[in-house]
Specification:
Blueprint (H helix, E strand, L loop, with lengths): L2 E3 L2 E4 L5 H17 L16 E5 L3 E5 L2 E5 L13 H10 L8 E7 L5 E4 L11 E7 L2 E5 L9 E5 L4 E4 L8 E6 L12 E7 L3
Antiparallel strand pairs: 1-2, 2-11, 3-6, 4-5, 6-13, 7-12, 8-11, 8-13, 9-10, 9-12
The structure holds N-(carboxycarbonyl)-S-(naphthalen-2-ylmethyl)-L-cysteine (MD3) and fe (iii) ion.
N-(carboxycarbonyl)-S-(naphthalen-2-ylmethyl)-L-cysteine (MD3) binds next to strand 6, strand 8, strand 11, strand 12 and strand 13.
Length: 199
């Protein structure tokens, strides 16, 4: 890694321009068969981030709460995780398992993601890998319990983060996206892919 923050390893600019464009093409293939939607929180509020998934499971949320489901809300199974994404997992995860969910998060304008933990997965010893594309995002990391100090770093297009060990349970979120900081997405915004072993 080129930077580590609170145990999260960041490989800055892990993907160069041509690989980012190829990955974007694979993501467009996913969103064509599994369109982005806006999940609702348990409180019934729509999230500002739009989402979809690839893999055996997709991440879903509504009034019943957060969970992994086998089908898109329109009823189809999720598309396969692209080989390009699996290759990145193999290069950085250090895991002998394969991700079962590739969550696709799309941030436009004022989209943000509040501080939260990722702990809906059965084996919290399995790492999480995240890939950033498009505009820069201000990423905030706290502790493994709520409250206390936080640290922030900017994530750029092509950066790959690996969360394992204690960092796997760190509170984290996206405070804001800086418009017009990348030319990768024609209409601007940011895409984040999050890879997880679910079962
Ligand atoms: C630290 N996504 O989907 S990626 C999420 O940019 C999520 O869309 C953010 O948090 C995004 O759950 C942050 C970096 C990240 C992803 C997963 C983590 C950091 C993490 C899991 C554990 C600890
Ligand atoms: Fe998260």
């Amino acid at each position: 890694p080129t930077v580590s923050v609170r145990g999260i390893d960041v490989y800055e600019h892990f993907l160069l321009g041509p690989s980012q464009m190829a990955l974007l093409d694979d993501i467009r293939h996913i969103t064509r068969s599994a369109p982005l939607f806006r999940p609702k929180t348990r409180a019934g509020k729509e999230m500002s981030v739009r989402m979809t998934s690839a893999g055996k499971f997709g991440w879903y949320s509504d009034q019943k709460g957060y969970r992994y489901v086998r089908r898109h809300p329109l009823g189809s199974p999720w598309p396969e995780i692209p080989a390009s994404v699996m290759q990145i997992w193999d290069e950085v995860s250090g895991s002998s398992r394969r991700p079962e969910c590739c969550l696709v998060n799309f941030y436009d304008g004022d989209a943000r993601m509040g501080l939260h933990q990722d702990r809906d997965e059965a084996d919290l010893n399995e790492p999480v890998v995240s890939i950033s594309l498009g505009d820069d995002a201000l990423f905030r990391v706290g502790n493994t319990t709520r409250g206390g100090s936080t640290e922030s770093i900017w994530l750029h297009s092509g950066d790959v983060c690996v969360m394992s060990g204690d960092a796997r349970l760190a509170y984290h979120g996206i405070d804001r996206v800086a418009p017009h900081t990348s030319t990768l997405l024609p209409r601007g915004g940011r895409i984040n892919l999050t890879l997880r072993v679910v079962t």
